[in-house]
Design a protein that fits this description.
Blueprint (H helix, E strand, L loop, with lengths): L4 H17 L4 H16 L4 H6 L12 H17 L4
Length: 84
């Protein structure tokens, strides 16, 4: 069962919430929120993009650092269908 974009976006939003609670850099929090919005509204499945070996930095609001950090957990999520 593939992981849907909305589930991945929810993870980004939760990470942003946790960063906000920790009083993290507001730019970092915003980066995760922007990534969530991008993934949630993206017309193509993130599962398909990863299967095709797409460069995640080509997506709007996904920079090098965020793509590098998130690719492993995106892959794990797709493989194990994240526990809720």
């Amino acid at each position: 069962m593939p992981v849907h974009n909305s589930e991945i976006a929810d993870k980004f939003d939760r990470l942003a919430d946790l960063l906000e609670i920790e009083d993290a850099n507001p730019f970092r929090v915003r980066a995760y929120r922007n990534a969530a919005r991008t993934v949630r509204g993206y017309p193509r499945s993130m599962s398909d993009l990863l299967d095709d070996g797409a460069d995640l930095t080509e997506l709007p609001d996904i920079g090098d650092d965020l793509a590098k950090k998130s690719r492993p957990w995106w892959r794990r999520a797709i493989c194990r269908c994240w526990r809720r």
